[in-house]
Write a structure and sequence with these properties.
This protein has 16 helices and 14 strands. The chain is an alpha/beta fold. The chain binds D-serine. Pfam families: SHMT.
């Protein structure tokens, strides 16, 4: 809930209440974060946390599952309706376990997978060396081209050399539209499966402001708490019967034990919100805001990776634009109550812990009611902070402006009104 809590455990009470203050008084620009509604949080903190129920609705290894079966079935039906798919699994604990189960359903251990590199905007679970995906599979990566864009000819060329069993598309820091049809053509040409990880853009697809991979991908995975604005967790979808069975078996008993019913209920309530007309408006506004935000930085002379954005996020090359590393830029902005994350840029010379970029996303502040006007104002605040990083009095003035914005745009408890 977006109000202070009281607990016997004072240490946890303090940490949560301080986090509430932080969330209220900071402008949240981490592209993977959002504000779940109070109803989503209410069910996530409910008695459903007490129940075990390995298996699937109607076929459990425990008794007393008649109510949680209803919850899980509702989550499944709502998710199928949002994305127009035949099969959905709502049990993955996170996007990472969803990806683990999805990859296992399509590729034998030590098979070949091909995803985008981390520095180009990919995800750990798409084949990064120290992740399960880089350890249990032979992993190969493609990059964006010198313009910062997906280059389908280059990807096809690499796929022909590697002959992967699986190609993964869908990213953590790619600001342009993904052509899923082209990816499927590439996959078909080399005899690979196609997996679309839509964790970042799921809400935009649901709102109809990004094309859907449903017609093209053999498997779709996602998280539920980014642009989808729900309870934290993962999901897997497919239209193919044989793959659906494998997915179910790889989620349970393959990678997971008992489903987290409180979390599944949170997903179900959020999916119902996604199905309401207001969600379409929300998705549209996220993208309008993102484009206006990025353009304003460009007006100030900053360099955006790929030259702009079509979705909810973009990465600024802060090293080139402001002569600071991503790590330093992020900590300067933290001083004035703006939260971003440092992010590698294509061919980054800095380590992933330092980086040359910061990634900015508009989903969370759009939930708080920001429109283009506020995002343009925010771009000016960030630009001024990075240009005057050592001037304490300027930073103090900028922080005052941030606090004014957070006060005027409080976190909403519900999105129904
Ligand atoms: N950690 C998420 C992100 O920030 O994009 C991806 O899992």
């Amino acid at each position: 809930m977006y109000k202070k809590i009281k607990l016997k455990d004072k240490k946890i009470e303090n940490a949560i209440n301080n986090e509430l203050t932080r969330q209220k008084n900071h402008i949240e620009l981490i592209a993977s974060e959002n504000y779940a509604s109070e109803e989503v949080m209410k069910v996530t903190g409910s008695i459903l946390t007490n129940k075990y129920g390995e298996g699937y609705p109607g076929k459990r290894y425990y008794d007393g599952c008649e109510n949680v079966d209803k919850v899980e079935n509702l989550a499944i039906e709502r998710l199928k309706k949002i994305f127009n798919v035949k099969y959905a699994n709502v049990q993955p604990y996170s996007g990472s376990t969803a990806n683990a189960a999805a990859i296992a359903a399509l590729v034998e251990p030590n098979g070949k997978i091909m995803g985008m590199s981390l520095s180009s905007g990919g995800h750990l679970t798409h084949g990064y060396g120290i992740n399960f995906s880089g350890k249990f599979y032979q992993s190969f990566s493609y990059d964006v081209d010198e313009r910062g864009l997906l280059n389908y000819d280059n990807i096809l060329k690499l796929a022909k050399e590697i002959k992967p069993n699986l190609i993964i598309c869908g990213y953590s820091a790619y600001s342009r539209t993904i052509d899923f049809k082209k990816f499927r053509q590439i996959a078909d040409e080399v005899g690979a499966y196609l997996m679309a990880d839509i964790a970042h853009i799921a809400g935009l697809i649901a709102a109809g402001v990004h094309p859907s991979p449903v017609e093209y991908a053999h498997i779709i995975t996602s998280t539920t708490h980014k642009t989808l604005r729900g309870a934290r967790g993962g999901i897997i979808m497919t239209n193919i019967d044989e793959i659906a069975n494998k997915v179910n078996r790889w989620v349970f008993p393959g990678y997971q034990g008992g489903p987290l019913f409180h979390s599944i209920a949170g997903k179900a309530v959020a999916f119902n919100e996604t199905l309401q007309p207001f969600f379409k408006e929300y998705g549209k506004q996220i993208v309008i805001n993102s484009k206006a935000f990025a353009k304003e930085f460009q007006n100030f002379g900053a360099e955006i990776v790929s030259g702009g954005t079509d979705n909810h996020l973009f990465t600024i090359n802060v090293k080139k634009s402001y002569n600071v590393t991503g790590k330093d830029a992020s900590s300067i902005l933290q001083q004035i109550n703006i939260t971003v994350n440092k992010n590698t840029i294509p061919n980054d010379q800095e380590s992933p812990f330092v980086t040359s970029g910061v990634r900015l996303g508009t989903a969370a502040m759009t939930s708080r009611g920001f429109k283009e006007k506020e995002f343009k104002k925010l771009a000016l605040i960030i630009d001024q902070a990075l240009k005057n990083k050592d001037n304490k009095s300027i930073l103090k003035g900028l922080k005052k402006q941030v606090l004014e914005l957070t006060k005027n745009f409080p976190i909403k408890k519900s999105y129904w009104d």
